[in-house]
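Re: the request from the purification team.
They wanted to know what the chain is likely to look like in 3D before they choose a buffer screen. I agreed to run a prediction and write the result into the notebook, where they can find it.
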Amino acid sequence: MSSNEPAAVAERFVEAYNSGDREKLLALCAEDIHVEHHNRGVELNDRAAFGDIIKGFEAAFPDKHFENRRAVHSDGDTVVVEHTWVGTAQADVPGFASAGEVARIDLCSRYTIRDGLVVEYHDYG
């Protein structure tokens, strides 16, 4: 599998997210990336704004990561991953967890990848 194939790019995206390497994560994103978390009211079209959201989550959930990958499906430029997002809240985060509580959210994440970059990232869950 070539490093620019959609499944490989999505894998590197998850690895960068899990490692906390925000710069590496953002380097995998198109400048005008469309990000939408369908159940949390997040929608944006800008890599810098996505970086700001990630930075906020790093502060609120320093141990945030994806785990329990149950499925990966790839078709053309689209990759879908079924997994669980996990993080321990540092303070009360409405809709996620109380301070000290571990949040677990089962997600289906959909990535659209073109020319080795994530151009769309959607979370459902």
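For the purification team: The chain is about 25% helix and 45% strand.
Please add any questions underneath this entry.
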